[in-house]
Specification:
Layout: E1 9-14, H1 23-39, E2 43-48, H2 50-53, H3 55-59, H4 68-78, E3 88-90, H5 102-128
Parallel strand pairs: 1-2, 2-3
């Protein structure tokens, strides 16, 4: 039954340290990914702490999609998993902010929307098969 199944797998990576993932963890992700791939479950990388990976983004979060550092982090997060770049979703963690910031929230909501789209697509394929 579709309600008792995983609809999307989300890997979380820190954008500032995405290139420093221990090989043992990469191997675990790959073994898990093999099982997920057999079932056709979509996969996404949530790239957190983008403000720590780029000073330009730290000073203005709206630069997240213009930043070469974030672009490189997206590549480092998606390539080892064999995922397309549009499956790596950058977000900034609320850490020191005392109030909500629309630009930070928009990134999180955009990521959530993409995850929901991937899950909906999987459900549609699941129902037709």
């Amino acid at each position: 039954m579709v309600t008792d199944q995983i609809h999307c797998v989300l890997f979380r990576n820190d954008a500032a340290t995405v290139g420093d993932i221990p090989q043992k963890l990469v191997d675990k992700k790959h073994s898990f990914q093999k099982l997920v791939n057999l079932k056709g479950i979509p996969q996404v990388v949530l790239l957190t702490k983008v403000d720590l990976a780029c000073k330009e983004v730290a000073s203005n979060i709206t630069n997240v999609f213009k930043s070469k550092e974030i672009e490189a982090a997206v590549d480092k997060a998606s390539n080892p998993l064999g995922l397309p770049r549009n499956h790596a979703l950058p977000v900034k963690n609320y850490e020191t902010e005392m109030e909500l910031d629309d630009n930070i929230s928009i990134l999180a909501l955009m990521a959530l929307r993409q995850v929901l789209h991937f899950a909906e697509d999987y459900i549609q394929v699941f129902r037709t098969n």
